[in-house]
């Protein structure tokens, strides 16, 4: 999370990364959790979410275990 915020600060200006993160990430995570819930257990899925202004994208990968636990990683690219 901290690395993504640093990258967003570099892109949008000092101190703005956290605001952008708090604005976009809840919706992205909610959407990805829906995808995980419908994916077969053990299968890794990946999704790229482009920022509305086209300046970058968030890539999330994750999988759901057979007991329902989920794991996710995210990266930000410009």
Roughly how many Å is the radius of gyration?
14 Å
**Total beta strand runs:** 3
The number of distinct structural domains comes to: 1
Instruction: Spell out the helices and strands N to C.
Output: HHEEE
Strand coverage percent: 25-35%
- Give the structural class: alpha+beta
Order of strands in the sheet with the most strands? Answer: 1-2-3
Identify the overall geometry: elongated
Helix content: 40-55%
What is the first-to-last residue Cα distance?
Answer: 16 Å
- Count of helices? 2
Report the sheet with the most strands, covering strand number, pairing sense and barrel closure.
3 strands, antiparallel
Mean pLDDT: 90
Uncertain segments: none
């Amino acid at each position: 999370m901290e690395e993504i915020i640093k990258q967003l600060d570099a892109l949008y200006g000092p101190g703005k990364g956290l605001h952008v993160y708090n604005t976009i990430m809840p919706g992205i995570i909610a959407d990805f959790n829906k995808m995980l819930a419908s994916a077969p257990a053990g299968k890794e899925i990946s999704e790229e979410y482009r920022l509305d202004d086209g300046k970058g994208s968030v890539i999330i990968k994750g999988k759901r275990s057979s007991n329902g636990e989920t794991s996710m990683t995210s990266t930000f690219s410009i």
